[in-house]
Structures are given as structure tokens and as C-alpha cells.
Amino acid sequence: MPRGARIHLVCIIEDALKRLGVDVVHLYGTDEFVPADLLFVHYDRSVVPPHIARFAKKYRRRINADARDIRKHTYADGLLTRNSTYDGRVIVKSTLNYGGQPEINSRSLLTRIRQKASRLAGLQDTPLIHSKQDYQIFERLSDVPAPYFSQHHVVQKLLPEWDGEKNVLREYIFFGDIHFENIERSSDLIITEDENVSCRSFVPHPRLLEMREKLHLDYGKLDYTMIDGEPFIFDANKTLGLGEFVDTNSASTEYISMLHAFALEIVRIVNDQEFRTYDISRLHGARTPIPARRSRRQPSVQPAAKVQNG
Q: Phi and psi for 161 in degrees, rounded to 5?
């Protein structure tokens, strides 16, 4: 992100870390190595290039250093091809996270000119998908234009979860061994930011943990609906944006409490010589929400730990 910008949730986590006495240093690029107790890889691209991974290995403790590829075609549920047999509604998205906006913004000027020229010349007749507002919904798989069946898009079953007349979006948000479920509700079929129902600590479904392990995510979120008692996962994110919470005061108490819990988890990690970012075996098979989270002792942070947010 641009220097000094506050556009990601890690900014609020950083505020909490500083109050706990943790020294946070921002790294922009991999030219400089600064010794630290922990490296937090926060690289806003769907595919992390090899040089970032090589740089991360210089640090003993690393967060999201192995989360190298979160393109939707590698993990999303309900993916379809032109030859699939399916008679329900389908949705078309970019395979890249956030519609590929970070990648688009980093293109060279020459690349942008070439791609715009191709569109103006009619060589690209498929609408671009840059955000949720650009998602395409079709009544039948046969209605999907052929160009959408490409390496740049995913065609997926549209399986919303309904609460009466409202469409429900579930977000499993996590950091290490801390698990929260944020629930949004809307009259729209595609939910962006609408009515927030709750953001509470919970015990994640085993399949959510399995997906975390598959994508090597220590921090991030999974978007899903519950269909016939099973999660239907359609998005993953490892660089969560502030969105409507750019003004921190507008975030709910539950949401801020979650981010502060993430900060405490970082402190636990930098003070624990044998840390594990999450323990799947301890939670495997548990499906019911935790009624109340047990109080957690605040670990000592003396001497102050230094954390890199790179």
C-alpha cells in the first residue's frame, strides 16, 4: 500500500500493538533486511512472486509467508466448465482477488495502452470484472459467453444462503489461533457492505480450517455460505481492507475487539519459542459456536518485540 495510507485492517492491529509496547517497522519491498522477532507478509496480490518468499525465509517467525496463491480457480467451491452438467444459476468472477485491482493498478503504462486499444478495436468483447459490481449472473450455464471460460475468470454455481428475504454472507476471519465469524445480510444478491448482523468468536467448521491449511493462511478471511450444513467457500483474502471502517470510530465494538485479539495473538507468537499459528487437531470436529470466550492473560511484552509488516 502507499506509504502512510490506512487502507487495510492491519493498521488497526498495528495501533493496538503499539499500545502493547511492540515496535512495528514497515518494509516496502525487499531491498532492506531489518532483524525482527516476526515478519508479517502483507503483499496485496493474488500470487506472491518468488523473491518475496525468498526474503521471508530470512526471518525465523513468519505470518502468511507460505500463502503464495489465492486465485479462485485453485480452491473455490462449485466451479464449472463449459462441459459441466448444471441447470441452476451461475455467477462469473475474476479469478484474482478483489477483481485483480491491485494487479491492474501496478501495470505499466504501455500495457494499459495496449489493453485499452484492444478493447476499442473490438478484440476483447468480454466485459471486464474489476469488482463485485462487475460480477455477471446468468440463469443457465449455457447463457455464459465462451470468453468467460478462461484463465482470467471463474464460472461458479450461485448458491446464496437466505434468512427470510435477506441474503446472508458469512466471513471466517482469523489470525493464528483466534477465530471470528462476521455475518452480513442484504436484500441484494451480491453483498458488498450492508447490514452487519454480528462479529463474534466461534469454533470454525473443520472444512474452513482445512481450506486455511490448503492456502497456508495464518491471517485472513474466507467468504462462504452454509448450504445443507456445509460451508460453500467462494473467496479468500489475506490483505483485508478497511472498507467502510476507514474511520475507525465507525467500526462496531465487536469488530474492534476482534482486531485487538489479533494483536494479542501476535504478542503471544513473538513471546512463544515453540509457537504454532493454529492447531487444527484441537478444533477438528467442533461445529457449535462458543457461548463466551474465556479471558486471556495479557502476555508480557518486555522487552519490546519488533514486528515487520512487509
A: -105, 130
